[in-house]
Amino acid sequence: MPKENSKKETADVTIEQPVNVVKQDWMDDLQICLTFLTRIPVTGGLVISNPSLAQSTRFFPVIGALIGLIGVITVAVADLIGIPFGASVLIALLSMVLITGGLHEEGFAQTADTIFKRVENRDQRLDLIKNSNVGAFGILALIFSITLKWAALNSFSLGGAAVGIFIMAVISTGGLPIFMRYMPQAEKDSSSPWTEQPEFDKTTISVVLALIVSFFAVGFWTTCAILIVLIVVTGLASWLLMRLFSGSTSHLLGALQQISEICIILTIAVLNNE
After folding, report:
1. Left if phi > 0, otherwise alpha if psi is -120 to 50, otherwise beta: which for 195?
2. pTM of the predicted model, to two decimals?
C-alpha cells in the first residue's frame, strides 16, 4: 500500500507541473503583423506556433506606415519617370493593394455584395459573406471605393498626394483594433485570428501611435477633423453591420478599414480645397 500511494503522488505531481508557454515579444508581434497584414515574407517563418494577432495589434500603425510608404515611393517614382499624375496615383493605390494581397478590399467587396443581396436572416448573410465568389454589387462597390480615393488624391499636388496616401494607410490600419475589441464575434465558434479581442492597452497603443503620426503629418486640426468624421461614419457603419450580422468577421473588418480610408482621404481633400 505505501508503494501504491507513492506512485499516485508522483503521478499527481507530474500532472500538476505547469506548461511553459512562449510569450510574444515585440519582434514576434512585428512578424505576426507582417504575416497577416501584408504579403511580405518573414524570413525563417514565425517562431510562435500559435500566434495571436490580437496581442500584436500595437504594431498595426507601424505596418500601416510601411504600406503607406510603399504607396508614397511608387507615386513619386512614377511621377519622376514622366507617367501622368492621375496614372501615378492609380499605380500607387494598386501597389498598396498588391502589398496587402487585397486583404481589406476583398472584405469590402464581400460585405457590399452580401448586404445588397436579398436574404432573410443573419445566418444566410454569414453564409454568403464567406462565399469566395463576389457578385456584381461587390465589384461595383470596389470600383466605387477605388475611384473615390483616386479622385480625391488626384486633386492634390504630388506632395499632398504622398501625405494623403501615407496617412490614409496609417490611421485606417491603426484603428482596426478598436473594431476588433469592441465588436463581438458574429460566429462564436470562429477560429479566425481576426475575431480575437485585443487587450485595452494594445488597442490604445495602436490608436495613439496612429494619431501621433497624423499630428506630425497633417497637423492638429486636420487630425481632429479626420477623427470626428471617422467616429461618425464608422460608428454608423458598425451599428449597421451589427444589425445585419450581429458581430464582426474578418470581411466586415476589411470593409470598415476601407470605409475608414475613404473617410480619411475625402476629409483631407475637403480641407485642402477650402
Report:
1. alpha
2. 0.87
